[in-house]
Protein backbone atom coordinates (compact mmCIF):
# COMPACT_ATOMS: atom_id res chain seq x y z
CA UNK A 1 0.00 0.00 0.00
CA UNK A 2 1.46 3.32 -1.10
CA UNK A 3 1.78 5.80 1.73
CA UNK A 4 3.28 9.28 1.90
CA UNK A 5 3.61 11.11 5.19
CA UNK A 6 4.66 14.75 5.42
CA UNK A 7 6.24 16.34 8.46
CA UNK A 8 8.23 19.41 9.43
CA UNK A 9 5.63 22.13 9.10
CA UNK A 10 5.07 24.80 11.71
CA UNK A 11 5.00 28.50 12.49
CA UNK A 12 8.00 30.56 11.39
CA UNK A 13 8.73 34.27 11.11
CA UNK A 14 9.25 35.91 7.72
CA UNK A 15 12.78 35.28 6.54
CA UNK A 16 12.99 32.04 8.47
CA UNK A 17 13.51 28.47 7.30
CA UNK A 18 11.80 25.11 7.55
CA UNK A 19 12.60 21.69 6.17
CA UNK A 20 9.69 19.49 5.17
CA UNK A 21 10.03 15.73 4.89
CA UNK A 22 7.99 13.27 2.87
CA UNK A 23 8.42 9.69 4.04
CA UNK A 24 7.41 7.08 1.48
CA UNK A 25 6.42 3.45 1.95
CA UNK A 26 4.80 0.71 -0.06
CA UNK A 27 6.67 1.37 -3.30
CA UNK A 28 10.21 1.80 -4.65
CA UNK A 29 10.85 5.49 -4.24
CA UNK A 30 13.83 5.48 -6.64
CA UNK A 31 11.58 4.84 -9.62
CA UNK A 32 9.09 7.66 -9.18
CA UNK A 33 9.07 11.40 -9.42
CA UNK A 34 7.88 13.16 -6.28
CA UNK A 35 6.19 16.54 -6.23
CA UNK A 36 5.51 19.10 -3.53
CA UNK A 37 2.31 21.07 -3.81
CA UNK A 38 0.66 23.63 -1.55
CA UNK A 39 -2.80 24.96 -0.98
CA UNK A 40 -3.62 28.21 0.75
CA UNK A 41 -7.13 28.92 2.08
CA UNK A 42 -9.49 29.78 -0.77
CA UNK A 43 -6.91 29.02 -3.45
CA UNK A 44 -6.22 26.22 -5.86
CA UNK A 45 -3.57 23.65 -5.04
CA UNK A 46 -0.38 24.67 -6.85
CA UNK A 47 2.86 22.94 -7.67
CA UNK A 48 5.93 24.07 -5.77
CA UNK A 49 8.74 21.73 -6.76
CA UNK A 50 9.39 18.22 -8.00
CA UNK A 51 12.25 15.78 -8.36
CA UNK A 52 12.59 12.92 -10.81
CA UNK A 53 13.35 9.45 -9.52
CA UNK A 54 15.87 8.14 -12.01
CA UNK A 55 18.29 11.07 -12.32
CA UNK A 56 17.06 13.49 -9.68
CA UNK A 57 16.27 16.27 -12.11
CA UNK A 58 14.50 19.06 -10.27
CA UNK A 59 11.99 21.73 -11.15
CA UNK A 60 10.74 24.75 -9.22
CA UNK A 61 7.84 27.12 -9.54
CA UNK A 62 8.98 30.68 -10.22
CA UNK A 63 7.56 31.81 -6.90
CA UNK A 64 10.02 29.66 -4.92
CA UNK A 65 13.02 29.49 -7.23
CA UNK A 66 16.21 30.42 -5.41
CA UNK A 67 14.58 29.98 -1.98
CA UNK A 68 13.45 26.34 -1.90
CA UNK A 69 15.55 23.24 -2.54
CA UNK A 70 14.17 19.76 -3.13
CA UNK A 71 16.27 16.66 -2.53
CA UNK A 72 15.80 12.95 -2.00
CA UNK A 73 17.45 10.20 0.01
CA UNK A 74 16.33 6.97 -1.60
CA UNK A 75 18.01 4.87 1.10
CA UNK A 76 15.84 6.60 3.71
CA UNK A 77 12.86 6.65 1.35
CA UNK A 78 12.41 10.32 2.03
CA UNK A 79 12.12 13.47 -0.06
CA UNK A 80 12.90 16.84 1.50
CA UNK A 81 11.90 20.40 0.78
CA UNK A 82 14.25 22.95 2.31
CA UNK A 83 12.48 26.30 2.47
CA UNK A 84 14.54 29.43 3.14
CA UNK A 85 13.69 33.12 3.15
CA UNK A 86 10.07 32.29 3.83
CA UNK A 87 7.41 34.87 3.09
CA UNK A 88 3.86 35.25 4.41
CA UNK A 89 2.59 34.23 0.98
CA UNK A 90 4.23 30.82 1.46
CA UNK A 91 1.63 30.07 4.14
CA UNK A 92 -0.30 26.98 3.06
CA UNK A 93 -0.80 23.29 3.63
CA UNK A 94 2.03 21.49 1.88
CA UNK A 95 1.50 18.10 0.28
CA UNK A 96 3.84 15.60 -1.30
CA UNK A 97 2.69 13.26 -4.04
CA UNK A 98 4.09 10.44 -6.14
CA UNK A 99 3.90 10.13 -9.93
CA UNK A 100 1.41 7.64 -11.32
CA UNK A 101 4.04 6.17 -13.64
CA UNK A 102 7.62 4.98 -13.44
CA UNK A 103 10.73 6.74 -14.67
CA UNK A 104 9.23 10.00 -15.87
CA UNK A 105 10.87 13.37 -15.65
CA UNK A 106 8.97 15.37 -13.11
CA UNK A 107 6.44 18.04 -13.96
CA UNK A 108 4.21 20.10 -11.72
CA UNK A 109 0.96 18.89 -13.22
CA UNK A 110 -1.41 17.65 -10.56
CA UNK A 111 -2.90 15.09 -12.92
CA UNK A 112 0.43 13.23 -13.03
CA UNK A 113 0.33 12.40 -9.37
CA UNK A 114 -1.73 9.56 -8.04
CA UNK A 115 -0.88 9.20 -4.36
CA UNK A 116 -0.90 12.08 -1.91
CA UNK A 117 0.04 12.62 1.70
CA UNK A 118 -2.21 14.20 4.28
CA UNK A 119 -0.37 17.53 4.26
CA UNK A 120 1.55 19.62 6.78
CA UNK A 121 0.70 23.20 7.70
CA UNK A 122 3.27 25.93 7.13
CA UNK A 123 2.49 29.35 8.57
CA UNK A 124 4.76 32.32 7.98
CA UNK A 125 3.86 35.18 10.27
CA UNK A 126 5.41 37.65 12.66
Write out key terms for the chains shown:
126 residues; mainly beta; four-stranded antiparallel beta sheet; globular
Structure notes:
By secondary structure, the chain is mainly beta. The chain has no helices and eleven strands. It has strands spanning 3-7, 10-12, 18-25, 34-39, 46-51, 58-60, 68-73, 78-83, 92-99, 113-116, 120-124. The strands form two sheets. Strands 2, 4, 5, 6, 9, 10 and 11 form a seven-stranded mixed sheet that branches. The protein is globular.
The topology string of helices and strands comes to: EEEEEEEEEEE
Task: For the record, give the distance between the C-alpha atoms at the N and C termini, rounded to a whole number.
Answer: 40 Å
Radius of gyration: 13 Å
Global structural class: mainly beta
Major beta sheet summary: 7 strands, mixed
- The helix content, as a percent range, equals under 10%
- Overall pLDDT confidence: 95
Sheet-strand content, in percent, reads over 45%
- Strand tally is 11
Quick synopsis:
The protein is built from no helices and eleven strands. The chain has 126 residues and is an all-beta fold.
SSE layout:
Layout: E1 3-7, E2 10-12, E3 18-25, E4 34-39, E5 46-51, E6 58-60, E7 68-73, E8 78-83, E9 92-99, E10 113-116, E11 120-124
Amino acid sequence: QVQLVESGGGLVQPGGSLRLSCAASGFTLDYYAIGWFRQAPGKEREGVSCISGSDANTYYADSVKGRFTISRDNAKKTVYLQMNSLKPEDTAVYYCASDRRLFRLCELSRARYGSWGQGTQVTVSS
